[in-house]
Amino acid sequence: MLISTVILSYNSVEPIQRCLDELISSLAKFDEESEIFIVDNGSKDGSVELIKQYENKYQELQPALIKPIFFSENTGTTYSRNAALKRAQGKFTLVLDSDAYVNYNALKSLIAYLEDHHDVGMAVPRLAYNSGNFQLSCDVFPTLIHKLKRFLFLKKIESKPHELQATNIPTNVDYAISACWLLTKDAVDKIGLFDENIFYSPEDVDYCLRAWECGYKITYIPGAEVIHDAQELSRGFKLSMFHFSHLKGLFYLMNKHKYFWGLTNLYKRLNRFS
């Protein structure tokens, strides 16, 4: 088994069809079998029916390509992903959002980098919006001040040239948003499951931080580009339940890893200097 893909679906009937079509087409170009877990968190927009159509379409493949997991309610991002991770058998694990459209060349580049660099546990692509504009998908570990600036001024930040936008060289990063990750099985086995004390976010920061704790690097591969047709639930100034959930998760993260204002001591603990 080459790749086990874990996709979350929540009222995603519009993007998930393109997500699955492009993923299935890309996986078919590899010589090895793969599997796709689609975890639906109680969608009410027709997503469930669409996922079942894909399951039926590919049901004759052995082993099964499409492996849906259905929940009757929204269980968040951690419990749901863990349900799939527990069953994943692939040499690599692809964590993918339902609005991320992966392609064969990007997957091939990410796999090649992981195979050539055993100290890297996670390789992540350059993400672009559907418009083609650069998406700031990698960042330093969040402090309270840094997170406030990102919350208030993300569009402005993304409109300015960023060092990751200019580089053509693979670069180690603190963390990447979980729209598209490729991890080795060894890394997943050592890092473990997502922390279910976090419901919605920042589960991706926590997982990346734990990857560094386990001695794995996280590397941004600018030559691998993936479209992320993102509409972040917590983006913008208008407050919502997602903002409060994110804030709660952020305080939990910082308390768990014993840092709030600065990153110097955290970097020393993680040996994060390269």
From TrEMBL:
Residues 4-191 form the Glycosyltransferase 2-like domain. The keyword Flavoprotein does not apply. The keyword Transferase applies. One of its GO terms (molecular function) is transferase activity. Signal peptide: none annotated. Keywords: Transferase. InterPro entries: Glyco_trans_2-like, Nucleotide-diphossugar_trans. This is Glycosyltransferase.
